Amino acid sequence: MLALLQRVTEAAVSVANPEGKWETVGAIGPGLLVLLCAEHGDTGDDARYFAGKIARMRLFPDDAGKTNLSVRDVNGAALVVSQFTLAADWRKGNRPGFSRAAAPDEARALYEAFCALLAAEGVPVETGRFAASMQVSLVNDGPFTIWMDSREA
To answer: Cis peptide before 143, with omega less than 30 degrees from 0?
Structure first.
C-alpha cells in the first residue's frame, strides 16, 4: 500500500455531477490529506497498519514548535482520496504504466477498509469518490509531506 500524507490547514475534494458541475463531496479543516493507493498483494493488514500509523504519527507542532502531536492530538481530520497513479511505473518510455495498482474491486475494498480503520482510530474521515474524476484542493501546511510504502515497513 502507498500513501502520500500532506499536513493541511484545509482540503476539499469535488466530483462532477451529471450536469457537469463540480460538487464538494469531502472537506476538512486542519489535518491530513491522504492520497492512498492499493497495490497487487496488499491486504487488510496493510490497511490496518497504515491506519494506526497515520493516526499516531507525530506530524503537528506542539506549543514549543516541535512536531510532537498526532492528528488525533490536535483534533484534526483526514481527507482520504483514492489515487491509483501513485503506483505509476515511469522508468520506461514516456507514458507511465499502472499495472502495479490493485484491480478496482480489490482496491475499493482496501480503500474503504482503510477509511473505516482510520475512523476507528479516532480520526474524523472525509472521502473522495472511488474511481471518479476528482478535483482536490488544499492548503499545504509547512509544507509537510510524507511518503509511505507498506512494503518498506
So the answer is: yes
Q: How confident is the model over 23-60, as pLDDT tens digits?
A: 999 999 999 999 999 999 999 999 999 999 999 999 99
- Pick the catalytic residue from 50, 84, 114, 127: 84
β pairing state of 2-16 and 22-28: antiparallel
145 is catalytic: no
CB atoms within 10 A of CB 152: 7
Q: In the chain, what are the domains?
A: 2-152 (3.50.80.10)
Examine the residue annotation and report whether 135 is marked as an active-site residue of this protein: no
3-state secondary structure of 18: coil
Q: Is 83 assigned a catalytic role?
A: yes
- Reported residue count of the chain is 153
Q: What is the pTM of this model?
A: 0.94
What is the Cα Rg of the chain in Å?
15
Residue 113 grid cell: 477498509
